[in-house]
Write a structure and sequence with these properties.
Length: about 325
């Protein structure tokens, strides 16, 4: 008697009953680039469909996200060069662009989960995530800068701060600073396993944040490694991270699985700018169906073990899921 796995695929109803993995809007985080000029919008050439937006427009898009069931946004500020400096001083300005954006979002949409990026690069005249001295990215002197940045963001109302810098010890330093300032309820999403990836190219266009010299290989991880990821997981757990992120997404699903199996913490994955740009470029040529490939990519991340997914396609995915859950 032949065994017939196709019986479990015979109708949409049966397929739905036996489906192992679910993707829904509530798993998604929408990254947004904010710039000065409340109503401004500057398209990002390498990320079709994405733009740097002024604060008022950011609030509109976040409102739309919530209406579509996307609960969270992740904010990245695009600063004018004049505001950048070697020590990223602008990052703690209570009237700085990011802090004003967080306050506007929380005032208009209190239930929105606002996630802020903690790293020096958008504020740094060197374009690195840590402090530069000569050819070196110095670790321990970067930690107080990151900790102060995180406290400034929490004070503005951020629900979760997300260190994306890959300095050693930063999760512990940030946790201690947040607690000392009374922000015991502010979460930390650690970019725990972040690779030195060429897939971040379009993001660096968006923020004009590419390193002015050198690369990020002395702090971001070597794409060849996965055991090393488990060391980062153990450290960030011990230092008090609330969520652990793997980044990029699709080329690193084996890492997502390894991290999922190694931790009881929620695992986030970042479907990064280059992954989004590839889908858009292929779709623009008529070579791929953007929406279907987007949903398949995000579902694959869930299958690999991700709880939540940062994606520039969050609204597109949520709209598609609303039509055909
Ligand atoms: C830097 C940061 C980067 C991204 C998020 N935070 C780029 C980098 O490390 O150079 C990339 C996100 C993306 O490519 O979508 N702190």
């Amino acid at each position: 008697m032949p065994i017939r796995p196709r019986r479990n695929r015979i109708s949409a109803g049966i397929r739905g009953l036996v489906r192992e993995t679910r993707l829904s809007a509530q798993h998604l985080v929408l990254p947004l680039f904010v710039q000065e000029g409340p109503q401004s919008a500057t398209p990002i050439a390498s990320m079709p469909g994405c733009a740097r937006l002024g604060i008022e427009r950011i609030v509109q898009v976040a409102r739309e996200a919530l209406a579509l069931g996307v609960p969270a946004v992740a904010l990245f500020p695009a600063l004018e060069d004049a505001r950048k400096s070697p020590r990223a001083d602008e990052s703690v300005n209570p009237e700085g662009l990011l802090q004003r954006t967080v306050r506007a979002l929380k005032a208009a949409l209190p239930q929105l989960v606002v996630i802020t990026d903690v790293a020096m690069d958008p504020y740094s005249s060197d374009g690195h995530d840590g402090l530069v001295r000569g050819d070196e990215i110095v670790n321990d002197e970067t930690l107080p800068i990151l900790a102060a940045m995180a406290v400034a963001q929490a004070r503005a109302g951020a629900d979760v701060v997300a260190p994306s810098d890959m300095m050693d010890g930063r999760v512990g330093a940030i946790r201690a600073a947040l607690d000392a300032a009374g922000f015991t309820g502010t979460g930390i999403c650690s970019y725990c396993v972040k690779y030195a990836s060429a897939f971040y190219g379009p993001f660096r266009d968006a923020l004009d944040s590419a390193p002015r010299a050198g690369d990020k290989k002395t702090y971001q991880m070597d794409p060849a490694n996965v055991r090393e990821a488990l060391r980062e997981v153990a450290l960030d757990e011990a230092e008090g991270a609330d969520w652990l992120m793997v980044k990029p997404g699709l080329p690193y699903l084996d890492v997502v699985r390894a991290v999922r199996d190694a931790t009881a913490l929620p695992v986030a994955v970042y479907h990064v700018s280059g992954e989004y740009a590839m889908l858009k470029a292929a779709a623009a040529n008529g070579w791929l169906d953007y929406e279907r490939c987007l949903l398949e990519s995000l579902l694959a991340m869930r299958r690999a073990g991700a709880d939540l997914i940062f994606t520039y396609g969050a609204l597109d995915a949520a709209r598609a899921l609303a039509r055909a859950p």
